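New to this. Explain these tokens.
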Amino acid sequence: MTLRFSQLVVGLILFGIGCAVMVDAGIGLDPWTVFAEGVSTNTGIGIGWVVSITGFLVLLLWIPLRQKPGVGTVANILVVGAAMQFALPLMSTPDAWPAQLVMFLAGTVLVGVASGIYIGARLGPGPRDGLMTGIHQRWGWPIWAGRLGVEATVLATGWLLGGTVGLGTVLFAVLIGPIVHVSLPLFDRGARVGVRPAPGPREGDASAATAATRLSAPGT
């Protein structure tokens, strides 16, 4: 458990840093970060703190969906936004567009690998992934349909609030699934010891969240 928790925290910290790298690249963001940036622009609250607040509010939506959070769910809310907030001032947006592109791709790879690390710890899904699987289990919607509906709404709202939508938004949507697909087996502790978790309220949701993550952005 100590190793799994350590893996979880490392993955979440790297995830937050990767998100910060993508923000500072300035060429577009994943839907949830577009929303966080839009809220931050209009409220003056740091984008990392908005990520944490949003995660907590999303977690409240688990109640009617009858989902139960795991240790990883709570840690996700506490760690990702904080890591993102502290990493943002350490970087700046490059002047040259090719450098911005390289920076964004580096951030995307870091987020994808970090997703494999923290999901592989099998300590519970992030609040946004749990929302998707909760919709699936409560109402029978396909995970991809629930994710598409929620993230399209979040993206549109964030864009209207002033969040950055651009080439990076498209690149992230295309690349994140394959990156997580490759990285997750490398860090999946259940697979490493040859154990498939029983579909309980925590591990079952984590497995479903893994499937959701492979389809599109993992969210924070």
